[in-house]
Specification:
The protein has 488 residues and is mostly beta strands. The chain is rod-shaped and about 190 Å long. The strands form 6 sheets. Strands 20, 21, 22, 23, 24, 25, 26, 27, 28 and 29 form a 10-stranded mixed sheet that branches. Strands 6, 7, 8, 9, 10, 11 and 12 form a 7-stranded mixed sheet that branches. The longest helix is centred in the first third of the chain and has 16 residues, at 19-34. It contains 2 helices and 29 strands. The mean pLDDT is 77.
Length: 488
């Protein structure tokens, strides 16, 4: 038999117990019961089954009492209604190495009716203005921690801010409100993503990846893409190299295909492109042309470009397929093009140079005429016709082959109007001549001949109106020589 306690007053069988001894037994029993600490005899712990199920009524425990335990298992909700109790439980758990709190129900802090596995309620007395933390996560170095705060954005919109604190202070961190706006580095986000400061964003590693269309012309979400080193069969800005980066800014309406795209290839000249895509099918690529903005090399723009404001160009300008390099030796360059059209006046400080050599004016013709014909005004002045009268006083000039400057041109036409011909009034042009008045020598004055449309040497006694001066000798019957036209 295990050792038993020594009797308070030891007697043997038949001994008499006095009244004072009996009283002493009762007093000692009451003292021992009052001093009982739920241990076995001689301080040994109680066995696991010493306290039976429901043997302790927790509702009758003194709320000011302190309880030490290594593990607490709760079958229902664990309710902590005061911060003092929470601090004491936290301190108690911290005092035991490896202590833990487990429950198969919900845990509420600041609420008696938790609706989640862990619910921390701040109510209106803590954190609405964002100046108090609802939850703090502390690192092993207590100088570093993360606070979770709540704040009112507007009526019906509440935000939650995650603010990290370190040696240099507290950062604004990340904010999320109930309207779905996310802010990084900003306390009150104003859009779905609102970033204060710089941002480094990732991108899809391959446009051929799962869920992506494999074509720059197909609808893409706003973001960063690349074609993954494999040439695409779809629309890419530079088909000469298998690698291309793409930045997409997509319209918020997902039913159309409005996009602004900026693409860059890995070509030797670091080619940079952009384009704006119009609304199109969401299942079939409808591509607009790419415009090139190369950091090195030539730039190519497709389509019409409208510029509002001034344009300053350092260098020359080539248009209509012509290079910007000057064609005329010694010319400084500027604009190299085919046609220049102005609605107003054109002014030149240092003159105008042309390849052709005459000044002409468009006149209506009353018969079929051709370059080189000598023409006169009709009697009624309604047009011109070939000269048929020697020394005709109505002679007007010579039909120009290629006018250097043309007067009376129709601004709405780029070709000659039917029945209208340019008549050289001054300058050098090819002219039809004949030997009616003898051979022609350079410098001879010329006048209308009787042969229609031809000029002849004026002779010594010139009458009527002269056409101009011969610039070449002529000994044949009829032909074509250069003359310098001036009427007198």
């Amino acid at each position: 038999m295990a050792d038993r306690p020594t009797p308070y007053v030891k007697r043997t069988a038949g001994d008499i117990i006095r009244a004072d001894e009996w009283n002493e037994v009762q007093i000692r029993a009451q003292e021992d019961i009052a001093a009982h600490n739920h241990t076995g005899g001689f301080g040994a712990p109680l066995p696991r089954d010493a306290i039976q199920n429901k043997a302790i009524d927790a509702s009758k425990l003194d709320p000011d009492s302190r309880y030490a335990m290594k593990e607490l298992t709760v079958g229902g909700p664990l309710k902590v209604t005061g911060t003092a109790q929470l601090a004491e439980i936290r301190a108690a758990l911290a005092s035991f190495s490896g202590a833990k709190l487990t429950t198969s129900g919900d845990v509420g802090v600041g609420t008696a009716t938790p609706t989640a596995r862990l619910e921390v309620s701040t109510q209106n007395d803590r954190g609405w203005d964002g100046n108090k933390s609802s939850l703090r996560i502390v690192s092993p170095d207590t100088r570093y921690f993360l606070d979770v705060k709540s704040f009112v954005v507007a009526s019906g919109n509440v935000g939650y801010q995650f603010s990290p604190t370190g040696e240099t202070g507290t950062a604004t961190g990340l904010s999320l409100d109930t309207n779905g706006n996310l802010g990084i580095g900003i306390a009150r986000p104003g859009a779905r993503l609102d970033v204060e400061g710089g941002a480094l964003l990732g991108y899809a590693s391959s446009l051929n990846a799962g869920g992506l269309p494999g074509d720059f012309g197909m609808p893409l979400k706003s973001g960063f893409y690349q074609n993954g080193g494999a040439e695409l069969t779809g629309d890419v800005p530079d088909g000469t190299h298998p690698w291309t980066h793409l930045i997409v800014c997509r319209h918020s309406n997902t039913t159309n295909n409005y996009q602004l795209q900026i693409g860059a290839s890995y070509a030797e000249n670091d080619r940079l492109f952009f384009r704006k895509m119009a609304s199109g099918s969401l299942t079939t690529a409808q591509n607009s042309a790419w415009n090139e903005l190369a950091t090195r090399g030539a730039n190519t723009f497709a389509g019409s470009q409208a510029i509002t404001g001034n344009v300053t160009i350092t260098g020359n300008l080539g248009t209509n397929g012509f290079p910007p390099t000057p064609k005329t030796r010694g010319w400084g360059g500027g604009i190299h093009t085919w046609d220049v059209e102005a609605e107003g006046s054109m002014w030149s400080k240092n003159g105008v140079q042309t390849g052709a050599r005459d000044l002409a004016e468009n006149f209506a013709t009353l018969e079929a005429i051709e370059p080189g014909d000598v023409v006169s005004l009709t009697a009624d002045g309604s047009g011109v016709e070939r000269c048929r009268q020697p020394h005709d006083p109505l002679v007007l000039g010579v039909v120009s082959t290629e006018p250097g400057m043309l007067l009376g041109a129709d601004a709405l036409q780029h070709e000659r109007i039917a029945g209208e011909q340019p008549i050289a009034l001054a300058g050098r042009v090819p002219c039809k001549v004949c030997a009616e008045n003898g051979p022609i020598r350079k410098g001879n004055l010329l006048v209308p001949a009787s042969l229609p449309g031809h000029a002849m040497r004026a002779g010594d006694n010139t009458t009527g109106c002269t056409i101009g001066k011969a610039l070449a000798d002529f000994d044949g019957d009829t032909g074509l020589i250069d003359v310098f036209v001036f009427l007198r």
